[in-house]
Write a structure and sequence with these properties.
The protein is an alpha/beta fold. It has helices spanning about 25-45, 50-65, 65-80, 80-100, 135-150, 165-175, 190-200, 215-225, 250-260, 280-290, 310-320, 355-360, 375-380, 395-405, and strands at about 5-10, 15-25, 110, 115-125, 125-130, 155-160, 185, 205-210, 230-235, 240, 270-275, 330, 345, 365-370, 390-395, 415, 435, 445-455. It is globular and about 75 Å long. It binds NADP nicotinamide-adenine-dinucleotide phosphate.
Length: about 450
């Protein structure tokens, strides 16, 4: 195995201190990892479905046993509140448990044909390359690793350079769970070098990417050269639509963390809050109360609700949207340095044509956009290149369903701001992506459908 002599530092965004120093992989290490995964594939695909399921269940158990340690590592490396990090690792356990049931449920069809018997099989793809972002490092890795393993593939996983620590732990835990060496390989290196090498590698059958729309486009272009299977989970600019007949108190009190959770570094952030004009005043009063009471501070403090941004670059980018014309309605507080802090900020009123309403800010900045009626709400919500998630708040059930069907977005919640459930499909319309993760649907993207005909006459 090639081990790079180059090293890289990983930082803690709440303190700006170095958290770890690690080997930094380049193209050679990516090639080595692909070779290991290729070698491990025939034996892994031959593991019987119930045994493969048991190994995934073992992995869920060892992750659960390390939950606190993993949560602290993620909280320190990403800067996310420890209570959120615990919830996320708990979800990772659930993801492996869920897909532990999948190997025995990869069903095919028998199809009536003339002259014989026809049946279909779901076959593994081979080596799959997984590329993950820095905002939810372990959960997003699990959404890809678990279905990929369940379907019988072997893996090269490239985490974001800013946050590779929990992926490296996952590699160790997989071995501890009894998953054979070479089945899950983590390559910690820069996207432009190690990532691109994986995407271009002829022995990688599929790439599953989560990250920005700009890099997703590049990954799609490179993968097309060898007609690789590609799934892309990309950016978002989701709408939180609040009608005047909603429970305004509930909508306003849950709106802040639907944008400011993970310090706004969330692809599902409902960063455009569309409010029916007749309810604007009471909604804004309740929103201000909720935003100014968000507790921003040390990620390891149990009472913290929002931590710092991931880096100085990210803070500078986020700040550029606040100095860009749309009025600041109110802001919460944030600690002074060190740390990449940014206060939760609400811009209002914002036009849907403003930059703050069109681009993914990926920070704790929400834009409030008034609308007149249902038709305008739908038009504004859909007037974006993205289509990842969104919410509708109303007490009128028929209107809620009418609007949900009209929205061009992958995941919608009615009277709720949640987006992700282990058993349901998650993914984007338009430039928010291609394909779906989670639920049974994810397995379709880690298998090929094979048709077999047997002549009986
Ligand atoms: P990013 O800059 O696009 O990076 C994502 C991953 O791609 C990282 O591992 C990165 O590696 C790698 N990468 C960068 N350039 C590459 C290249 N040329 N070829 C192959 N890989 C490359 O995204 P991010 O800043 O980490 O994450 C934020 C973005 O992710 C936001 O846009 C957010 O909306 C999106 N996101 C989407 C979802 C979803 O499910 N739809 C979920 C979470 C996040 P290095 O960082 O090591 O260079």
């Amino acid at each position: 195995m090639a081990v790079s002599t180059e090293t890289m530092q990983v930082f803690e965004p709440a303190t700006e201190q170095v958290l770890a120093e690690l080997p930094r992989a380049g193209a050679e290490e990516a090639d080595e990892a692909v070779a290991r995964a290729k070698e491990a594939f025939p034996a892994w695909r031959a593991v019987g479905p119930s045994d493969r399921g048991k190994l995934l269940r073992n992995l869920a158990r060892v992750i659960d046993e390390s939950l606190e340690e993993l949560a602290r590592l993620e909280a320190r490396n990403v800067g996310k509140p420890i209570s959120d990090a615990r919830g996320e690792v708990g979800m990772v356990v659930d993801v492996f448990d869920y897909y532990a049931g999948a190997p025995e449920r990869l069903l095919g069809d028998t199809i009536p044909v003339t002259g014989g018997v026809d049946m279909t099989f779901r076959e593994p793809l081979g080596v799959v390359g997984l590329i993950t972002p820095w905002n939810f490092p372990l959960p997003i890795a699990s959404w890809k690793v678990a279905p990929a393993l369940a379907a019988g593939n072997t893996i090269v996983l490239k985490p974001a350079e800013l946050t590779p620590l929990t992926a490296l732990e996952l590699e160790k835990l997989a071995l501890e769970a009894g998953i054979p060496e070479g089945v899950l390989n983590v390559v910690n290196g820069p996207g432009r070098i190690a990532g691109e090498r994986m995407v271009e590698h002829p022995d990688v059958a599929k790439v599953a990417f989560t990250g920005s729309t700009a890099v997703g486009r590049r990954v799609g272009e490179l993968a097309s050269q060898s007609i690789k299977r590609v799934t892309l989970e990309l950016g978002g600019k989701s709408a939180n639509i609040v009608f005047a007949d909603a429970d305004l108190e509930k909508a306003a009190s849950s709106a802040p963390l639907a944008v400011f959770g993970n310090a706004g570094q969330d692809c599902c952030a409902r960063s455009r809050i569309l409010v029916e004009r007749s309810a604007l005043e009471p909604f804004m009063e309740a929103l201000e109360q909720a935003v100014t009471s968000i507790r921003v501070g040390d990620p390891l403090d149990e009472s913290t609700q929002m931590g710092p941004l991931i880096s100085a670059d990210q803070r500078q980018k986020v700040a550029s949207y606040v100095d860009d014309g749309a009025p600041v309605a109110f802001r919460g507080s944030a600690p002074d340095g060190p740390g990449f802090w940014f206060p939760p900020t609400v811009l209002a009123p914002v036009s849907n044509d403003d930059r703050a309403a069109r681009e993914e800010i990926f920070g704790p900045v929400a834009a409030v956009i008034p609308f007149e009626d249902e038709g305008e709400a739908v038009r504004l919500a859909n007037d974006t290149i993205y289509g990842l998630s969104g919410s509708i708040w109303t007490r009128d059930g028929a209107k809620a369903l009418r609007v949900a069907r009209a929205l061009e977005t992958g995941t919608i919640s009615i009277n709720s701001n949640t987006s992700v459930r282990v058993g349901t499909p998650f993914g984007g319309f338009k430039q928010s992506g291609v394909g779906r993760e989670l639920g049974p649907h994810a397995l379709d993207y880690y298998t090929e459908l094979k048709n077999v005909f047997v002549a009986t006459t």
